[in-house]
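Build the 3D complex.
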Amino acid sequence: MSAAIHGGRAKCLQRLVRLDLPVPTTVALSFDAVKKIAEGLMPDVTEILEPFGDAPLLSVRPSSQDPDWGGPGAILNIGMTDQLHAKMCKTVGEAAATSLYLRFIQSYAVEVAHLDPDSFDLPETPTHEALALALKAYEEEMDEPFPQDPARQISAVLASMARAWEGTTARLLRQARGAPADAGLGLVVQAMALGVGKGESGSGVIEFVNANNGLHQITGRYLSQSQGREALTAESGALYLTKDPRGKSLQEICPEAFAQLLKFGGICRKSLREEMQIEFTLEDGVLRILDAVLVQRTSRAKVRIAVALAEDGIIPRQEAIMRVEPTALSELLHRQVNPDADRDLIVRGIAASPGAATGRLVFTANDAQASAARGEACVLVRRETTPEDIRGMHVAQAVLTLRGGVTSHAAVIGRGIGVPCVVGASDLVIDRKAKQIVAPDGRRFSEGDTVTVDGTSGDVLAGEPPMLEAALDGAFKTLLDWADDYRDIGVRANADTPADAQTARNFAAQGIGLCRTEHMFFEPGRMAVMREMIFADSPEDRRAVLDRLLPMQRADFIELFEIMQGQPVCIRLFDPPLHEFLPFDKSGMRELADALGLTMSDIQSRVEALEEYNPMLGMRGVRLGVTIPEIYEMQARAIFEATIEASRNGAPVVPEVMIPLVSAMKEVELVKTNIDGIAASVANETGEAFDYRLGVMVETPRAALRANDIAEHSAFLSFGTNDLTQMTYGLSRDDAGRFMSVYVQQGVYEEDPFHTLDVEGVGELLSIGAERARESVPDITLSICGEHGGSRSAIDFCRSKGFDYVSCSPFRVPVARLSAAQLAIRDHAAI
Amino acid sequence: MSAAIHGGRAKCLQRLVRLDLPVPTTVALSFDAVKKIAEGLMPDVTEILEPFGDAPLLSVRPSSQDPDWGGPGAILNIGMTDQLHAKMCKTVGEAAATSLYLRFIQSYAVEVAHLDPDSFDLPETPTHEALALALKAYEEEMDEPFPQDPARQISAVLASMARAWEGTTARLLRQARGAPADAGLGLVVQAMALGVGKGESGSGVIEFVNANNGLHQITGRYLSQSQGREALTAESGALYLTKDPRGKSLQEICPEAFAQLLKFGGICRKSLREEMQIEFTLEDGVLRILDAVLVQRTSRAKVRIAVALAEDGIIPRQEAIMRVEPTALSELLHRQVNPDADRDLIVRGIAASPGAATGRLVFTANDAQASAARGEACVLVRRETTPEDIRGMHVAQAVLTLRGGVTSHAAVIGRGIGVPCVVGASDLVIDRKAKQIVAPDGRRFSEGDTVTVDGTSGDVLAGEPPMLEAALDGAFKTLLDWADDYRDIGVRANADTPADAQTARNFAAQGIGLCRTEHMFFEPGRMAVMREMIFADSPEDRRAVLDRLLPMQRADFIELFEIMQGQPVCIRLFDPPLHEFLPFDKSGMRELADALGLTMSDIQSRVEALEEYNPMLGMRGVRLGVTIPEIYEMQARAIFEATIEASRNGAPVVPEVMIPLVSAMKEVELVKTNIDGIAASVANETGEAFDYRLGVMVETPRAALRANDIAEHSAFLSFGTNDLTQMTYGLSRDDAGRFMSVYVQQGVYEEDPFHTLDVEGVGELLSIGAERARESVPDITLSICGEHGGSRSAIDFCRSKGFDYVSCSPFRVPVARLSAAQLAIRDHAAI
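Done.
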């Protein structure tokens, strides 16, 4: 690794030399050499200085191009002495020579000798007196004159750079950035091109793309009589590069040098296969190229640059695909707070659903709906969200909760519907009476105040900072289309609503891998029917009540099938515990008692009877399906009737019906018998034939362990890694937040297993399950449909086990498509 | 199987014939033969009748000795005709012959022809007129005369018996009793010995043991001029067998026949290797042995009889061990409601902790303690119990809850401390205001009313029925000592308190396999300290508070170590979530606020902050140990200081320290580092050396899957099958009650997995865990310590996987010792 770091900038400059670009003489120093000099083991540096001739004037900079890896920040210069100064007074003029010397002394005194910067302020005009004062100040502080030997200067500079690299701060920074522990500091020593002196002398920096959007655009600055990057920081006097109505430009002043610069830029891009920022100097009108570094860029620019390089034939498409980190795509899918904006932080929580949005504070789902009805953007704040809040979440611009982690209810729903969401902002206090939130710093924000939720960073900001819009441009689509040519595993979306399904379709998901049907029952009109069903006393009564839901469910499915145009739609049968449908508080119970004509004590005793200690591990999923089969029967009928209806209007639909929370083969057998019966009835009643596939959501460890016999009754197994992770770890995702950060910090868990698929534990169950399922049914369809589905590590794992597809939130589909393609390219390259 | 049933009684009689006992001529009929005759496929029965000569007088009875397998209950007689009657009038007298004929007609009419019994009542005196009337009644009902052909009689009798055997009721009964589906009805046809007639004629039944306690004792009855078992049901006139002050006895009347009977009894016992009930007849003073069947017996008698047979050299010890069902031992360990007592049922719940106890109703743990203080026996009734109820459970005679299943809190604690317990009595209603329970039949029982909880049957009874005391007699100990000679897997006890430990020791447990320490913190004085600890703000404050618990914990462990006298004691570190220590209601919070000098809102917000959605999957076990290490540090110190102290007073102690709820190797590493540090400190401070073993409780599927790396830091792994079952199934034991019975009835789960170890699912994880642990540490100690530990199927499984020991409730230790021995004997026999 350290070799690469030694080499970065040096290799790049060597290539430019080979391309006949006018690069001043350059020597690369390895970290070993730098260390030896620093430790006094290599007292003779003449070998280094040799290529530069007599009276060398040099610049030294790190060879690493990564500015975040710590170590010396500045470019340090070497070689100015009294003697050279005197000589240069004649060649470039006194003012220029003295100014240069003063700057040498200043940077040497501050960066190398670590003297007080105040004593070496640059004077307004570079006089001999000022120079004498500076030299005197140096001598007084150091008890010796300013070194007049270039060899001594370079030794001191190298030693100081090595010390800076090895300092604690730099080490910690590198560690945090993921640099290898033995990363070394290579240096590049280069003959200085003088930007001060006679004729048109100066220095500048040029880029050929817009770093924000990646479009072709020449930007940069040029400053006469300057060195290095001074043009970028100069308060005045800097020139534009291209002709500009606002002022003078390099193009006008030195058209030839400018034309050369453009030509060299093209050579750099083609040869270095990247968009480079070029540092240049004019020395009496002669162009010198000092350095070329990668253009720093936004994610959006990254995509466009990669696609453009491939379209221009400079890099192959695979490489364009490999150059974009999949997570960078997430940023493009959502509005972002402009990185340049001031951030007035209210509180920091967990970034749970990416994107940023601004709105007025509301504290209940009802208020969110009222706000939406008035056409006002709102941000819904809840201690935590429950299924009853979903309507509010759908209409809110963003959601903020005080409790929960990345897989809490709010987070899952937020990602599903693409609403920015920050959860677990536990430092925030809600003052319900005053309808206010209280920030950790004591500031209070009331209902109606404007705040911004940044679900990408986890920040909650006061007011409305400027935003960058989402950027689903052509380059984005092109890149993903290319990715699909390489991808070798399917990508579906988890989508519960027509809006989700449309998003999935827009992002080219290959079907729906998980359609949770319970959300459909939380809609206002349906909730009341569900409650009535819960209070029904006999299967007949339940059936009668559910019959009223049938047309609504059927309509839901018809809409989904039509949007998906014949692509597979995997519908999970009803899953949540019934108590989620009952009111929690007295007033809700009283309303319900009125509505159903029951007494309060009837309601209370039913609510109490349905209470659970551990709802996660309770009466839900297939356990409801077995004990109250009427619900699944209604759903199956709705699915099949919708299948016939939708197939009539368009592509033939083959629905997939998925049974949740299975722990024993018999559960599947029982439900399958029932559902096959419903299918036969529907076929008889309508006289229409249709196909469907019945499968199992593998969420309990037992289902994975018994996959061999469960597979016998299943067309597919889809691993629900959320619940499977909870049960494998014995860890509720809603309660894990309290210690997960400590656990990850201390390395107890390498990663939050709700965030990154735990290959060692949960993955073991996936492997066992897949293997055993295939033993009994070799061609069974295998997939995962948890929150992990879109992550690179999960896709990597699923590919290695030969799974058929992954399914993830609609907004993660592009990320998953890209990740899957990268993994396929990686494996192909490895062969 | 059917062969055995054909053969039971027939084989037994054949053996008695070979021993020269005076058994009348006997012929065995296989089920095939019976069926052929019944179906008319074998019209000629002369072959059957041949051995009995002319004018045969025969009895027919089932060959199966199990009275519970359904089929014909009565012994049916065959062969009486007008002709034989006339002949017998001369040989045995008119009265006897007519009485016999009347009885023949009665039983044939009722049992075979299914006529109305009222029409065939026996007359006071057996006159010719009565006989004529009976024959006429038969002829009128049947439109044909009473059959005068013995062959026709036997065909009809056999057909009726076969029909009875194959009837629905009998089938269902057999199925319920676990009989094989193809079990057949063999029959025994025997020449009738006449108990009516000249000289001393009569019949009787004799047993040589007391069927209640298994001690030697001659019991039975004899009735002159009777047939079969009439002596047992006769209202008057029956004789005692041995001399008796209350009346005449067979011993006095027929001393020779009596002496013969004793001799034959001894031969039967020795030859049939069992305690038999003998049915005999005196025919004009001559003894006939008609039948010998197993003495029906209580569990207590079963043990004593088996031991006595072995001690008398009649059966080998292995066979004595195999003859006692392990579950029968449970009955001996507890008081039982006398099976003969009338039962006034209040409600039926789930039998959760065996034994029966009577007391006055109380509704809170406090009232239970007050009751105990007054010296009054009480029964604690709760909706469900929480850790705060444990003090009340300790002093109550019995516990009754409305919710929960066999592994609910109440059930686990009840079994642990040997308190009878019925749970899940969901048909009961608690009227809190009135302090009453309301039975399903509407009866109300108030606080202070006397009720009896039968934890063996699950019944709750009104009042105080008579009881049988527990019976830990010599035979019980002898049998278990013998069992230990064959047993090849260790048996430890789960014991939390000195009382538990003493019970474990009494039952010869080989150490404590699971000592749950949290109960120690729920004692009144300690609870307050725990709460203070929860509100402490820094590790230092927590440590200071915990220092006050240290001497108490140390004293706990010293007591346990001393009771266990150097046997291993495996101490599980603190496990429950902290919110269990906080008050739930306003008044409790107010008290706590006062005690700690905090505001109500401080208390409320901490209570809220510690609330969990799924406490089972939350912040407990090692997760507390990692995030709040001070608790484990205090416990480790207490354990080590107690080790030194207890070793000083007796056998050297090597404590085992067990970490709960592990899901990742790093957790073990972190805790181990801490605890090793504490051990080193204690060794340094005291200057005393000691050993200890650190291990892991495998309760999460992930711990089993990662057993290879977890084992590297562990001296032992103990599988906590309760939690492991919950997580493998994704099923909370506290919430499973609502559908478990439906699931088991429908065969979705073969058994309640909390009751019977799920070998196919949970067992898979145990296998995987054991295998992987041994891969990295071949000699690691493996065990299970869940509620399953004492069950035969779990022991069978653990033996097959080479586990070192099982650990179970103290009261199940004898059961486990016996089961383990039986399994070892079974496997040895199979070789």
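The two ends of chain A are 23 Å apart (CA to CA).
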